[in-house]
Amino acid sequence: MYDEFTIAAYERNGFAVIPALFSAEELEEIERQLEAHLRLDLASAPKGDVVFEADSERSLRCLFRIHERSVFFDQLMRDSRLIQLVRQLFNGADVIADGTMLIDKAPLTTYEFPWHQDNAYQFWNPPDAVAVTLALDDSTAESGAIVCLAGSHRESILPHQPSGVFGASRSLVTPPNADEYPPVTLSLKPGDVSLHHVSTIHRTGPNHTSKHRRNLGFAYHTSRSVCDNAAADQYKRDLEKFLQTQ
Ligand SMILES: O=C(O)CCC(=O)C(=O)O
Hints:
Layout: H1 4-13, E1 15-18, H2 24-44, E2 50-52, E3 60-63, H3 71-77, H4 80-89, E4 95-105, E5 113-116, H5 119-122, E6 124-125, E7 129-135, E8 146-149, E9 160-165, E10 168-172, E11 183-185, E12 193-197, E13 202-204, E14 213-222, E15 226-227, H6 229-244
Antiparallel strand pairs: 1-12, 2-3, 3-4, 4-14, 5-13, 6-15, 7-12, 7-14, 8-11, 8-13, 9-10
The protein binds 2-oxoglutaric acid.
2-oxoglutaric acid binds near residues 113 and 118.
């Protein structure tokens, strides 16, 4: 059971941090598995699931749907601590695990993931869904940590547009009001986990450091939520069209 303060903070703010949920030994194993997986997967993963930096090194920026091609990462997404945590956020509702992704902000990369709400492309109704982030590296204001707007999860989904940033499909049309919803940087150490509600407005900034800032992201929804499949299909078609123009 996770403490009531964490759950209360999540309910109030739309995000929370659980320090050191994964041990150093577990992280070592995750690193080993990730390295082995990347050796195999980068060449064979579907085109839309891999995003590289545009620089000459072509380093990896995002790898989506890892759970579909890796038993280890599928099981990690179903880790009992993560499932129990999400179940507790949603008052004991059944939890369905949707996906695993890697986001690697390479050293000194300048792009941002602009302000957005995840439900602008996930379409859960009601929005009983959450993104769980496991830090593999130090995530700080300097290295491009996730910044959430406290309380913004109470908003409905605001108008979004294509973000123009590879890996981040949509961004808010109008930047949010920071007076209404104060920004909070989710600083994480390796092994820490953060949670943000699918309606929470958030962004990530550039990585000004000389080190990678990698996050593993896991998505969950509850059995109470239904996906608006028509909207999701339209979104996929629009995204494919956009990728073909690139
Ligand atoms: O981990 C990251 O860098 C991106 C997080 C994010 O914006 C998201 O999960 O929607």
